């Protein structure tokens, strides 16, 4: 962190100028259209699995046109077919929010009961320069609040993307944001590691600019598909074998 502070001072004027130019000239893509809740019905004797998705622009599906090609809907469909059970899902996401702002955003919304919380946050903590300890404190507060409100006890948390490879950002701003993202991601992994009911999903594989959306910043359709499969796998592995937790909340709807 000390090195990053020194870099920020030395490169400050250049980083500030490049940041202003990127904000002024960046291609603005809309959030994916479509429903933000749903039920994937599978004829099964098992109770529904309930998922709550919370995040920023990537969770909102920026980079694809419809929610069917974004994360929440795809994860629900993959899990329903894999587990042979119905999956109910709810999506709460907003472009531009950092983790502290996501807490405020979710606080003001109606939440359905959920068994698993799935999150994607952090990029805007980088751009808003939240310190690593603030980022983790904000994340912990968000998870605790959601768990208390919806009854979830499991969380699958995505790491930060490889911002050092984002083609829409010029150097040295790209290097600086990428290194800062790595610092936050390392802190995220340390926080998650000892917690048996949490799982971490790395996004460092999303490094091919050709697979990104037209803005050169958000995931494209192929990346969302890969990401959804990784999330579904983590959720399936995190679920109790006999599903006692899920059964506890089976009557929540």
UniProtKB/TrEMBL annotation:
Residues covered by the SGNH hydrolase-type esterase domain: 53-225
Any single Pfam family the record assigns to this protein: Lipase_GDSL_2
Classification via SUPFAM superfamilies: SGNH hydrolase
GO terms for MF: hydrolase activity, acting on ester bonds
Protein known as: Lysophospholipase L1
Source organism of the structure: Acidisarcina polymorpha
């Amino acid at each position: 962190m000390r090195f990053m502070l020194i870099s920020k001072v030395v490169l400050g004027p250049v980083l500030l100028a490049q940041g202003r130019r990127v904000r002024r000239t960046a291609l603005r893509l809309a959030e994916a259209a479509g429903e933000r809740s749903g039920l994937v019905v599978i004829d099964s004797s098992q109770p529904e699995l309930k998922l709550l998705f919370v995040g920023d622009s990537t969770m909102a599906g920026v980079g694809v046109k419809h929610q069917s090609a974004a994360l929440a809907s795809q994860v629900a469909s993959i899990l329903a077919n894999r587990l042979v059970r119905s999956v109910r899902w709810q999506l709460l996401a907003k472009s531009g929010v950092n983790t502290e702002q996501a807490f405020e955003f979710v606080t003001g919304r109606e939440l359905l009961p959920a068994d698993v919380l799935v999150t994607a946050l952090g990029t805007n903590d980088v751009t808003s320069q939240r310190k690593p300890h603030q980022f983790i404190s904000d994340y912990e507060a968000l998870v605790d609040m959601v768990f208390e409100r919806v009854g979830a006890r499991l969380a699958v948390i995505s790491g930060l993307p490889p911002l050092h490879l984002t083609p829409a950002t010029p150097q040295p701003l790209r290097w600086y944001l990428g290194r800062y993202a790595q610092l936050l991601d390392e802190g995220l992994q340390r926080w998650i590691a000892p917690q048996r009911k949490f799982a971490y999903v790395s996004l460092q594989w999303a490094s091919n600019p050709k697979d990104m959306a037209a803005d050169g910043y958000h995931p494209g359709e192929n990346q969302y598909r890969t990401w959804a499969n990784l999330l579904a796998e983590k959720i399936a592995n995190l679920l109790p074998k006999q599903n006692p937790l899920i059964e506890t909340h089976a009557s929540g709807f």
